[in-house]
Amino acid sequence: MIAPMRPRWNLAENRANELTQDLSAPPIPVYEIAESSGVNVVFVDFGEHAESVSGLCDFNAARIYVNRDDSTERQTFTMAHELGHWLLHRDIFINDPDAYPVLPRFAKPDSKNPLEKEANKFAACLLVPNRLLRPVKDAPVAVLARIFGVSRLMMEYRLKNV
């Protein structure tokens, strides 16, 4: 499989929905979902890179590394984002490891990379599924963010895209 030129929005959203279809209330247990998807989640000290790197997916080791110093909300998003890479992009890596290097998730990500866009879409849909957000979308943003266990910024994004 060759890396997509454009993000596959439907693929990302559908895969996230498959993983949450049996859940009836937030917050989404992303750690458990990741572990049950065949990847280990490891919280690590990124040392001198702790300010800029939130996490990464290591396809060879079947691990998601998450910055232990980040806020809980950022860690949750990082787990979901890296799980997106694991589920959506593993075939690309297996077929051509040189074409898909380990991509750390930076605090300021590359907004042009279609693989990063897919992983972001997957994470947003996994953590805040449309079917759970629609019935409560008129509640205050801060309340929804707390209930879903995500940042206010992430919740604002989801509300604009529901």
UniProtKB/TrEMBL annotation:
Transmembrane segments: none
Span of domain IrrE N-terminal-like: 34-160
InterPro entries: IrrE_HExxH (IPR010359), Rad_response_metalloprotease (IPR052345)
Protein name (Swiss-Prot/TrEMBL): IrrE N-terminal-like domain-containing protein
Pfam families referenced in this protein's UniProt entry, alphabetically: Peptidase_M78
PANTHER family per record: ANTITOXIN HIGA1, BLL7220 PROTEIN
